[in-house]
From TrEMBL:
NCBIfam families: Dyp_perox_fam, tat_substr_1. Keywords: Heme, Iron, Lyase, Metal-binding, Oxidoreductase, Peroxidase, Signal. One of its GO terms (biological process) is iron import into cell. One of its GO terms (cellular component) is cell envelope. GO terms for molecular function: ferrochelatase activity; heme binding; metal ion binding; peroxidase activity. This is Deferrochelatase. It is an enzyme of class 1 (oxidoreductase). Binds 1 heme b (iron(II)-protoporphyrin IX) group non-covalently per subunit. It holds the Pfam family Dyp_perox_C. The keyword Repeat does not apply. It comes from Streptomyces morookaense (Streptoverticillium morookaense).
């Protein structure tokens, strides 16, 4: 669980195509006031009257969240460099017996056509579910990837990338094979739960006869506008999580995250793509919450209140790994999570984390079955995830409170142009 997750709360402010917005109404103003922490303006009797008016049918809808749209077509697939949405579904499929390369190509075309329509806020042809009939696109993204076994089952082993080699075993792993790996992978994200489920339902129906569900995981993040100002998200341990995530403004962002556009050789079809490591990491919250605040902060290496490193400054102050405390000991402990995960501790290895939290009820002992749906993006997992996880596996103080319960690696090809489908260069090249 490296210290590198997206700043989810900035998502409505960054890099999204917003459809023209309706004129400001009182209903929209109420939503805006909540988003900027001004809800306190609506108090007493005025609050009751204002709330009643917001229920009228003739006022404009709330702005921003519903109308925000991401492009489906482009050099890269969406859902990688875009901030993580409030609702997410991670789904893996295995090709059905007898489904060959031609069948897989037809499925990817169906899926791509459907995703393009949904992400534009349109109902795909033949869709009569009505699940998200009244909603806008809500920053919906749909991302497709291929697992190692996909190439065996489609006769494409000669085009399987070397970077798709199985991940090494780690001592802290307690992996469930039934919830790991898979031929095909779909990542769905949206800021509205019905919009996300609508996409999931249609893609699952369209897979019938060609691919069958292997596993599904559902996650969530903080809703845009839930805080008074854009802030880095917190995980279920209550920690500010993601301060050091690579940013699209970094000069080396593309080199860390995406396969070069001039890729040559058998895996040239991966140009503009990325590799996704997917892990379900259960947090031992009962044990974690028994720690004192001081102990929790030392395990992470940051203050819980504002995310500032224990070496001093504010959340965004660069971590000083050499800083000593008044007693002469390291301000950031030798096994603190941010020290062990830092690029400086891993020969510059870095990845883009785009995670979701999850809660799947309670275990037999009453402990919450909750944690992180870890999704890490990188140009090469052997240079990104693997060296960092090896270091965490050996000496991260946080590992005592985590259980890695499923794992998968997928090759996620670049985006496609209009009229094409994701993976076309692989399946028809």
């Amino acid at each position: 669980m490296a210290d590198t997750t997206d700043k989810v709360e900035q998502k409505s402010k960054t890099g999204q195509t917003n459809i023209a917005q309706p004129a400001l109404s009182r209903r929209r103003l109420l939503g805006t006031a909540g988003a900027v922490g001004a809800a306190g303006l609506v108090v007493g009797g005025a609050g009751g009257a204002f709330g009643a008016e917001a229920l009228r049918d003739d006022v404009a809808p709330l702005s921003g969240v519903g109308t925000a749209a991401l492009p489906f077509h482009g050099t890269h697939q969406s859902g990688i460099a875009d901030p993580a949405q409030a609702h997410g579904h991670l789904v893996a499929f295995d090709l059905a017996p007898g489904a060959d390369r031609k069948a897989a190509a037809a499925l990817l075309r169906r899926w791509s056509d459907t995703a393009a329509e949904l992400m534009a806020g349109r109902a795909p042809k033949g869709d009569d579910t009505g699940i998200a009939l009244d909603a806008g696109p809500s920053s919906l993204s749909v991302t497709f990837g291929f697992g190692r076994t996909f190439f065996d089952r489609t006769g494409l082993t000669g085009k399987r990338p070397a970077a798709l080699e199985p991940l090494p075993a780690f001592t802290a792993d307690a992996l469930d094979p039934k919830r790991s790996d898979g031929d095909l992978w779909v990542q769905i994200g949206a800021d509205d739960g019905l919009v996300a489920f609508h996409a999931l339902r249609l893609l699952q129906k369209q897979a019938d006869g060609t691919a069958r569900l292997r596993w599904q995981m559902n996650g969530f993040n903080r809703t845009p506008g839930a805080t008074g100002r854009p802030m880095t998200a917190r995980n279920l341990m209550g920690q500010v999580d993601g301060t050091n995530n690579p940013k699209t403004s970094d000069g080396d962002f593309a080199a860390k995250v995406f396969v070069p556009d001039d890729r040559k050789g058998a895996d040239a079809w991966m140009a503009g793509g990325s590799y996704a490591v997917v892990r379900r990491i259960r947090m031992l919250l009962d044990s974690w919450e028994q720690l004192s605040l001081d102990r929790q902060e030392k395990v992470i290496g940051r203050r819980k209140s504002d995310g500032a490193p224990l070496s001093g400054g504010t959340e965004t102050t660069p971590v000083d790994l050499d800083k000593l405390g008044p007693d002469g000991s390291l301000a950031i402990a030798g096994d603190a999570h941010i020290r062990v995960a830092a690029p400086a501790s891993n020969r510059g290895a870095a990845m883009l984390r785009r995670a979701f939290s999850y809660h799947d009820g309670f275990r037999d002992d009453g402990a919450p079955d909750a944690g992180l749906l870890f999704v890490a993006w990188q140009a090469d997992p052997l240079k990104g995830f693997v060296p960092v996880q090896r270091k965490l596996d050996r000496g991260d103080g946080l590992s005592r409170f985590l259980r890695h319960e499923s794992s998968a690696l997928f090759a996620v090809p670049g985006g496609c142009a209009e009229g094409e489908y994701v993976g076309q260069r692989l399946l028809e090249g």
